[in-house]
Amino acid sequence: xxxxxxxxxxxxxxxxxxxxxxxxxxxxxxxxxxxxxxxxxxxxxxxxxxxxxxxxxxxxxxxxxxxxxxxxxxxxxxxxxxxxxxxxxxxxxxxxxxxxxxxxxxxxxxxxxxxxxxxxxxxxxxxxxxxxxxxxxxxxxxxxxxxxxxxxxxxxxxxxxxxxxxxxxxxxxxxxxxxxxxxxxxxxxxxxxxxxxxxxxxxxxxxxxxxxxxxxxxxxxxxxxxxxxxxxxxxxxxxxxxxxxxxxxxxxxxxxxxxxxxxxxxxxxxxxxxxxxxxxxxxxxxxxxxxxxxxxx
Length: 297
Fold this sequence. Notes:
By secondary structure, the protein is mainly α. 75% of the residues lie in helices and 0% in strands.
């Protein structure tokens, strides 16, 4: 078998192994509870959805290991080296602080665009600075220290899928294809209400499409970090921080009660997600351009 066909075969095996657990637990939860689990008001459904959703993040890493074993690929180019050294430390720093800065900018943009009837003092609540700072620092530090669920995804997507796609096609096409595959991997979760719920026009296909678009943008950033450092850890840190310090958390931390109520009336979770994706598009485009350009020695 020639090299290209073997790479395609490995990609197919990897993807099937990565997505099957999500299909299984999504179908299982629906069968048990009779409704989309992430959108349920049943505490048991939400508990199991949260637990299995986190467990599913390890599926790509397990698929990575199994694919190497099944296809007798060996263990070269695993991206497991910790390369935080001179020349790479900037990428590690960026991976930790990029998402908090972006989320902070986002809530300011939301205030300017949708809360223009409120002054800064009315829209933002800094009456609990110690508590707010503690939550922020705990989430940030915890994301870096307990990064294993994000590592479960990143060692699969950026540590295995993307290097294979980059062997097969030009960088822009690989970023788009990888983002779509990553977005479609989330589809079983989207169908049971993850991220967007179920009460939006075009459910669930609109949610799947939005997820694919967001994953393309994010894939550009995370692939850039991984390929520049030849290490999976910056992408893992960035991914986990994104999950633990999302714009929704910043909004709950820093918006006043009046501002939060106004936003909930004006924007759905889907609309907030799309607005945030528009902001991240800028960073994604910059990372894609830098990734395409040849790195100087």
